[in-house]
UniProtKB/TrEMBL annotation:
InterPro entries: IS701-like (IPR039365), IS701-like_DDE_dom (IPR038721), RNaseH-like_sf (IPR012337). PANTHER family: TRANSPOSASE (PTHR33627). It comes from the Bacteria. SUPFAM superfamilies: Ribonuclease H-like. This is IS701 family transposase. Residues 7-214 form the Transposase IS701-like DDE domain.
Length: 413
């Protein structure tokens, strides 16, 4: 609250903001304005709903404060900015950005909402940094849906790589210490994103498809064809980082691409990963202003998994995907507060990899959240009558049921 408190001029919204984030940190079975308000000891959900809708505050400014906090607490000159999107399955068509589209979370085409996230990753920790909601072209070209969802007039259609480039540029322009960018094929297959990163003098390790074309001294080849011709001596086995069950060992090969030159100079490579058990291949297009060792590029490639850990922690523990917000501003505010809660835990746990004299494993973000709730939140939080909240919930549900039946009766007639 010392980090973001200046964004609120009055004490009431500051208190509600504090209580809202406490609710996100608490182990509630389901997180929405109702459950968070009950946890905070409020008499009703109106205050928490107002915080997401009517109270004046700038979610982009709060994310800028989060970026400053992360840079101050976790800043590392060798840090990696990891980009990826996550999808939330939805019903209906009125929630902002929802349509039938491919979701990597579901692994298929679903009715869902997609958002591009940016995570700050160092050797020891990682924290959620920024977010941009992906608004499909069908939404951008529909004035009625935009108006109903409160989409700002200045918002235009942007691809996921364009959204990622804007977030990375914002972070770099703000002076956040970082050197690398990592992302999957959605971002590696977009040459404009790679060009923008080179202009920012940020090295990158971006996944590309097996059909990706690379220029070598002997001509232009597909990435998989180039890998097939590599001799046995071209492969080295090394770890891409720690996993839940040990180090993640793969066979790696690095091919320099001297013909891949542009106005930004630097060094281009094709990094190839081979699973030593199945033989499956993965390909990465790499660039750096200075020469980089194979081990460095492998480490950056391995950092991409850290965004999945951030998604898991934010969804299971902080309610990132439990929002019930249909409109543009309320969606961004909820997501911003989940990012704030995750950044708080990461910053508070920045020294978790120091050796423990008792031989314990380092504190995890989830364990820190559990301890913070038990030792800090619960002893100080206000309580309200559970029967009053039961009556309020049942009254609200009764009104909703009556409204649905009344609307159905009008349609049937």
């Amino acid at each position: 609250m010392l980090t973001i408190g200046e964004r609120f001029r009055r004490p009431e919204p500051r208190r509600r903001m504090r209580d809202f984030v406490r609710g996100l940190l608490a182990p509630l079975p389901r997180k929405n304005s109702w459950t968070i308000a009950e946890h905070a000891g409020d008499a009703g959900p109106d205050g928490m709903q107002d915080l997401l809708t009517r109270v004046k505050w700038d979610d982009a400014a709060v994310r800028a404060d989060v970026r400053e906090l992360i840079g101050r607490q976790l800043g590392d000159a060798e840090a990696v900015l990891v980009i990826d999107e996550t999808g939330d399955l939805k019903k209906g068509r009125h929630t902002v950005g929802v349509q039938r589209q491919y979701s990597g979370t579901a692994g298929k085409i679903e009715n869902c909402q997609l958002a591009v996230h940016l995570v700050y990753a160092t050797e020891t920790t990682h924290a959620m940094l920024d977010v941009a909601l992906y608004l499909p072209k069908s939404w951008c070209d529909d004035p009625q849906r935009r108006a109903e969802a409160g989409v700002p007039e200045q918002v235009r259609f942007s691809t996921k790589p364009q959204l990622a480039a804007a977030m990375v540029e914002t972070a770099a322009s703000a002076g956040l210490p970082c050197r690398w960018v990592a992302g999957d094929e959605v971002y590696g297959n977009d040459p404009r994103l790679a060009a923008r990163l080179r202009a920012l003098r940020l090295g990158y390790v971006l996944s590309v498809a097996c059909s990706h074309q690379v220029s070598t001294g002997l001509g232009v080849y597909r990435a998989d064809a180039l890998a097939a011709g590599l001799p046995t001596a071209a492969w080295q086995r090394m770890s891409a980082g720690r996993g839940a069950k040990g180090y993640r060992y793969y066979d790696w090969s690095l091919v320099a691409l001297p013909r891949a030159t542009d106005n930004h100079g630097g060094h281009h490579w094709l990094l190839i990963r081979r699973n030593h058990s199945t033989g499956d291949l993965a390909f990465y297009r790499c660039w750096s202003p200075q020469r980089a060792a194979l081990h460095t590029l492998v480490t950056v490639a391995g950092c991409r998994w850290k965004i999945e850990e951030s998604f898991q922690a934010a969804k299971t523990g902080l309610g990132l995907d439990q929002h019930q917000n249909r409109r543009w501003i309320s969606w961004h505010r909820w997501t911003t507060l989940a990012i704030l809660a995750h950044a708080f835990l990461a910053a508070a746990n920045a020294n978790r990899n120091r050796p423990d004299p008792a031989g314990l494993i380092p504190l995890t973000v989830n364990e820190l959240r559990h301890l913070f709730n038990k030792l800090i939140i619960e002893p100080t939080r206000r309580h309200t009558g559970p029967l009053l909240w039961s009556i309020r919930r049942r009254r609200h549900q009764a009104r909703a049921i009556n409204s649905h039946y009344a609307r159905q009766a009008l349609i049937e007639q």
